[in-house]
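We now fix the convention by which a protein and its fold are recorded. These numbers are not coordinates but entries in a learned vocabulary of local backbone shapes. A record is reproduced here so that you can trace the correspondence yourselves:
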Amino acid sequence: MPSYSITRPSRQEDYARFSPNTPIVIDNGGSSFRIGWAGESDPRVTFRNVVQRPRHKATGETVTIVGDHDPSLMKYFDCTRTSFRSPFDNNVVYQFEIMEYVLDYGFERLGANLQVDHPILMTECICNPLSSRSKMAELLFETYGVPSIAFGVDAVFSYKLNRQFGRCNEDGLAICSGFSASHVIPIVKGEPVTEACCRTNIGGYHVTNYLKQLLSLKYPYHMSSITWEKAEELKMEHCYVATDFASELQLFQRTEPSSVADGRVRRPPVASFRCRFLPLSRERTIGSFATDGRPLELLLLPLLLFAAFTAAVRSFRHCHCCCPQLPSLLLQSSTTSVDAAVIKGNEEAKEKTRCWQLPWVPPTQGDVPSEEELARRAALKEKQGQRLRDMAAARKSIRITELENELTGLEDLLQQLDEVEEPEVSSILSGTKFFSRQEIESATLRVAQSLRKAKGEPSEPEEKNDSSLSEKYPLVSVPDELLSPEQLKEKKRQIFLKTTSEGRLLAKRKRFEEESLREKQNQLDEEKRLENPELYLEQLHDRYRELSEKVELRKRVKTNGNQNLSGGVGRGERLSAAQKERMRLLTSAAFDRGKGEDTFGARDEDWQLYKLMSKDNDDDDNGQDEDEAELARVTSRLQDIDPNFVPKSDLVPPQATPEFSKFRPQSLEDFKIVLGVERFRCPEVLFQPNMIGIDQAGLDEMAGISLRRLDRVDDPIKDDITKSILVTGGSALLPGLLPRLEAGIRQIRPYLSPLTIVRACDPILDAWRGAAIYANSPQFSLQTLSIQDYYEKGESLLSQYQIKYTI
């Protein structure tokens, strides 16, 4: 598996010393891009095959970053609106704009400047589409001017290299589990059999992404710490492939010894996994009896076991007649064995559990303050409070002085108007902001009320008798026949102003009455509390409980209808009387058409129909407002006199709030990421892709499909192929992959058939090394496609192009 340590490859300085006949070898993998010279043991440049294009924060210029980048550079670039982009789609290159950025960076790091005048050998997946191969050839020929190119399968190059090391034979099977796809390629006489190969869109990327999703769902508070790169590192260090997924999963079940209490053995539920029968039911004919080459005794084994079980039951009944204590002894023995298995399973699960500790800083615990310190803090708090009170008193004094001066000025102005004649009133008012005596009287009344409020005196309702309103609006009482058109307009305006003034006066009187009633109610409550505090508190709690239930019931009925209140069923029983009446009116209005003359609207009462049809008319809003106001008053009263009272709206159960942990300090355990089932559950997608929603075959099933597609190959050669199965690719580094493959393929093959599975020497670099050895051979030039042939024959030559691996 590739490592994602941030290391930028350095530029090579010896590009000029290689002759133009020395080929350049490129392993264009879905995870990493490797480029180097033919004949060398390792690639010169290796980087992650992704591109990101962030913007510079200062200039706004878009820059291109190929491969991984140093996180310290993120303070200069804005990467929030961009993400990593890969040129691949399921191991097939389709984003050639991104591919060009990758090739530019790779050739520049290798030392090339403008034109690449070396032959190129590039790896590709098996059965690469013609469109992808032709566009890649066009990019290399026309952009970089390479003299010749050759394309080869990476898994076959890895197989040829390991064959030189003696790890595999001439005939064999190459299982390549790559980054985003996996391939099974049969190799006969050193050449791949393309018509028998098998492919599935599952690889190391899906394992890492599945692990990231599981950990993010399990620890939502640490999603920022569980990055894709960190999930890849955890996969490399801790994940493994279980030989038997179901048995491995049972070790991590949360079973307790109490499950076998009361003398009864209760098996724990197994609902967290799915088992599948590995024989390939997709290619078998339903209803036909096929042995798949296995002996008939194996197929009859379930019947033989059932017969043996029946005989054991009969013998048990016979022994029970002779020894009645036998069932209790057997039950006790089985209970003890189950207890031992549970304890053993828990111990094994603990041994296989890994923990990843996130950085955690313990909260600072201050020293307990002394009595002198507490007294000093209390004195400082009192001093600050007194300073604030003095400031508030000073502001209040200034406000009172301003209001008194303003009130004195207004009273002097009114007195001055009383002492002068009517013609001189307009000249006096011209120097003020008032236009009439009524405005001055209204301003005087407002200032007097503000002054009484500032001094803390009880406010008085504003009295406006009919005579004052009549004086202010004289045209209201004049008949329309005696007024001119301009006076009629002014009369309408005065009627509107008078109505508005009367409405304000009524609202003020109502507020004053409510305040007076509230003060009286508070005085009565205080008298009751002082007379009998315990009884008063109990009555107040009962009142609060009654009002809260009433308001909650009304809200529930208004939201969900009158459900389950009358005991009836059906929609009619769920509707209230007002709702039923509204439904009747809607129905009659919808179907009452064309029945005589339409006289709707002739009377003012007709328009009340829309109000009755409205949903807002279903409940008594006035009663609801009164209950809610009373509930608020009782709640406020309880909060004042009962320190232990908590309103129902503030009571939230801990399990209903995902932020419950924030009410307690974060501990070291909260920053611990536990890897248990995830260690083998994530790699299981290589064998059961349906776990992540991909309906395709797993690695072991792919091997069986590929072998059955070899119809023209004899069975002895198939046995030779299964003797030499090579596993390569990044996922081949997962521990336990080879035993799991052997167990799965052995179920497919005939009984006692030979089977040998080996891992490549270096599953990651063997593809590039094998291609480097192949490109260094003298016959490599005969397997290349020159630029002259490309310009003459075009894409038709690429469709027929296939290199020979046995040269």
